[in-house]
Design a protein that fits this description.
alpha+beta; Serine Threonine Protein Phosphatase 5, Tetratricopeptide repeat; Methylamine Dehydrogenase, Chain H; four-stranded antiparallel beta sheet; 32 strands; globular; WD repeat; RNA polymerase II general transcription initiation factor activity
């Protein structure tokens, strides 16, 4: 398109970008000033530059080319990456605009086929865990610039033909062989959305409406919620502030398709010269091609359903150290705790070895464990050692669970919780329970006969004999003893609570955007951590204490340490709210579940996303790691519980049975049983050993995602326990494997 090219060259000249101008001329084979002399080569034809009057507006203009060409222009620094004749990618950043908003992640595919590489389209900086940047200038990209993102919809075909294009493709896919049809049907939804948005953006409102009405019924049932949002976008103005819309635009929709199905599609589109669909596929989809048999309908259905399609296979290739850290060794005093327990390296005086003593486990280093000092962990205090000793004694009396020996369940019902119960946690030793409420209070109860007491005032403490043996008893003020303590401080509903492993601290996070750290010695707030600007949905302490994680409406999870005001790590990459967070048992990784219907696993050391799991059809609300660190269980609003093998990055099971959101998941202490609690007022117990045995995790499965889930998860269901009318919001196994459950009675 000669006119466009002239406009671009003139713009470059006006902005004193001689170098870029020369390069573009060379690429377009226009050497003299006579622009009529030569036409563009086909690969770089169709460069279209979005309008943007002055270079200082900070909006990098967006190019959209039919080949892998992408030109983005704005000011002084220009970077060029060329790979084959006539295929150029140019990006420029306005002078002095280090933090220009519309930055472009520009890439030109070096492969022959511009689809296969999944070229990252310009102007979609916020992809999976990355920030868009242009070499030569540091561009910090947080929210994609709306006008920059939308201008990619400028180029359009004849609006009246959209229905014809779509129904033509639909007819082709429906008439293709069964083995290809399931794979190619994945195209329907992303194409439907992009074609609809393109019509709306270019103000063909009536065509958009009829296109939506004609084809929205064909989409898979799990996209209904997204389609409801989409149907409300009927005017160009609506698209400006809509997050779902921006998510769809800024992230490439990933489809995993076998090479045969892909070749079939490509041939069809080239024969039909169906450029509109061809453009959308190139610009907005990332086709992840694998060699081998096409996947079946149920294999695909198990894995799709998230906001951005499936995860790229590359996303789950990184090595993950899922093993457990070696337990420190110390003396196990027989009865009364004597002071010699302090010498760290002293070999434990072994008591009679019990069935599964924790001490015996820790001798060998797990080959899959991270190095002991991979991340700094807090030193063990004497009180922690005493607690570990108690834990070992309890573990010796632990009940071995299994299909023949199910746990007893003790249910804590919050009655008359008119304040609205929004979060629950129970201490590891099961001595205290905390509730977060919608009236912004945090309430802590003692569930043992021992009452909760605060430390005495400073004046009284000065009178105590510090050398006495029972000094820890004496510092407590008996006058303050009560079963319940109420903590005031938040200014909005409390959505998450978490006790520290040593029971000295309690975390709570709230709609007010803060995470608060409370002392359980004085029952006062010690710190308010401010980092999230919007509601914080969940928070959790590391199994080693000191670190904690929070996730919120700003789509980001943050890692904190109790003694730092600022977060240590920011995990960015989800396309919607981070709804739940969990530490891996070795504390080196964090799992986050999101309303974008994906689960991500993040490396605490460097902040990288090392796993992306897709398959849920609704927002994720619960996560649980198996005690051996190898597996992850996830629950969502779709009522399904999915099981994942972390090492191989694969889905290995699907537990169907719940009819409503799964809000609580917990493995028993030895990992034999998985308990799930739901809004459908039931607790269900599943056979975890059977679910994870003889898994097919060979290289082929890992490479292609050909997972074969057992047809029937009912053989894994060991029991279902109904409450009268109490949704289950929390589950906890005591150290002896008694299952505690909690929820608030609802009178409806």
């Amino acid at each position: 398109d000669r006119q466009t090219l002239v406009a671009v060259l003139q713009f470059l000249r006006r902005s004193n970008l001689r170098e870029s101008e020369e390069i573009l001329r060379r690429e377009a084979r226009l050497l003299g000033d006579d622009l009529g002399a030569a036409a563009l080569s086909p690969a770089s034809a169709g460069l279209l530059v979005g309008s943007g009057s002055d270079a200082d507006s900070g909006e990098a203009l967006l190019g959209r080319g039919t080949g892998a060409a992408a030109v983005a222009i704005g000011g002084s620094v220009a970077t060029v990456a060329t790979s084959s004749p006539g295929v150029a990618a140019v990006a420029a950043v306005p002078p002095g605009k280090g933090g220009a908003r519309g930055s472009c992640g520009v890439g030109a595919s070096s492969r022959r086929d511009p689809w296969e590489g999944g070229v990252r389209a310009p102007g979609f900086p916020r992809g999976a865990g990355t920030r868009g940047s242009v070499s030569g200038a540091v561009v910090v990209e947080d929210q994609p610039d709306v006008s920059a993102v939308l201008s990619a919809y400028n180029q359009q075909g004849d609006p009246t033909l959209y229905e014809e294009y779509y129904s033509g493709l639909k007819h082709f896919i429906e008439c293709s062989l069964d083995c290809h049809r399931a794979e190619l049907s994945q195209l329907f939804y992303p194409l439907f959305v992009h074609m609809y948005l393109e019509l709306v953006y270019n103000q063909h409102e009536s065509e958009a409406k009829s296109f939506f009405e004609r084809f929205h019924g064909d989409q898979e049932c799990y996209y209904q919620d997204d389609l409801r949002v989409l149907s409300s976008l009927t005017k160009k103005e609506h698209m400006k502030g809509n997050e779902t819309m921006l998510d769809f635009r800024t992230s490439k929709f990933v489809l995993r398709i076998s090479r045969d199905s892909y070749q079939l599609l490509k041939r069809h589109l080239q024969e039909k010269q169906n450029n509109q669909i061809w453009n959308i596929v190139q610009e907005h989809l990332y086709i992840d091609i694998f060699d081998g048999m096409p996947r079946s309908k149920q294999q695909i259905d198990a894995m799709v359903g998230s906001l951005a399609g499936e995860a790229k296979r590359e996303a789950n290739k990184a090595k993950v150290f899922f093993g457990l850290l070696k337990e420190p060794e110390f003396d196990v005093p027989l009865d009364d705790e004597d002071e010699e327990g302090e010498n760290e390296e002293g070999k434990p005086k072994k008591k009679k070895p019990k069935k599964d003593n924790v001490g015996s486990k820790s001798k060998k280093q797990d080959p899959n464990a991270p190095p002991q000092n991979r991340i700094p962990l807090p030193e063990l205090k004497d009180s922690d050692k005493l607690d570990k000793v108690m834990n070992m004694k309890e573990a010796a009396r632990r009940v071995r669970l299994g299909p023949e020996c199910l746990p007893s369940i003790c249910f804590y019902t919050f009655l008359n919780a008119y304040q609205g119960l929004t979060a629950v946690d129970i201490t590891d030793d099961s001595s205290m329970i905390v509730g977060g409420f919608a009236d912004s209070t945090v309430r802590v109860w003692s569930v043992t006969p021992k009452k909760l007491r605060s430390v005495k005032t400073a004046a009284d403490l000065s009178l105590i004999d510090k050398e006495s043996d029972d000094v820890l008893e004496r510092i407590m003020d008996e006058k303050t003893a009560s079963e319940l303590k109420i903590l005031y401080g938040h200014s909005g509903p409390v959505y998450g609570t978490s006790f520290s492993p040593d029971r000295n601290y309690l975390l709570s996070c709230s709609e007010d955007g803060t995470v608060r750290l409370w002392s359980l010695q004085t029952f006062t707030c010690l710190v308010g951590y401010k980092g999230h600007n919007y509601p914080v949905w969940d928070t959790q302490f590391s199994p080693y204490g000191y670190y904690f994680v929070s996730g919120g409406h700003d789509r980001v999870a943050r890692l904190w340490a109790t003694d730092h005001y600022q977060p240590l790590r920011i995990f960015a990459g989800h396309l919607a709210d981070v709804t739940c967070t969990r530490f891996h048992p070795n504390s080196n990784y964090i799992a986050t579940g999101s309303a974008d219907r994906t689960i991500r696993l993040w490396d605490v050391l460097n902040g990288n996303c090392v796993r992306i799991f897709t398959g849920h059809k609704g927002p994720i609300h619960s996560l649980a790691f198996s005690p051996n660190g190898r597996f992850l269980a996830t629950g969502a609003t779709d009522g399904r519980v999915l099981l994942w093998d972390i090492g191989h990055g694969l889905m290995v099971g699907e537990l169907k049975g719940h009819t409503d959101t799964v809000y609580a998941l917990r493995f028993s202490r030895d990992g034999e049983i998985l308990a799930s609690g739901s809004m459908d007022n039931t607790v269900r117990l599943w056979d975890a050993v059977k679910a994870f045995e003889d898994l097919e995790t060979d290289d082929f499965t890992t490479a292609t995602g050909h997972i074969n889930l057992p047809e029937n998860s009912q053989d894994l269901l060991l029991g279902t326990y109904m409450t009268k009318s109490t949704p289950v919001v929390h589950l906890h196994f005591t150290r002896r494997n008694l299952l505690l459950a909690a929820g608030a009675y609802s009178s409806q």
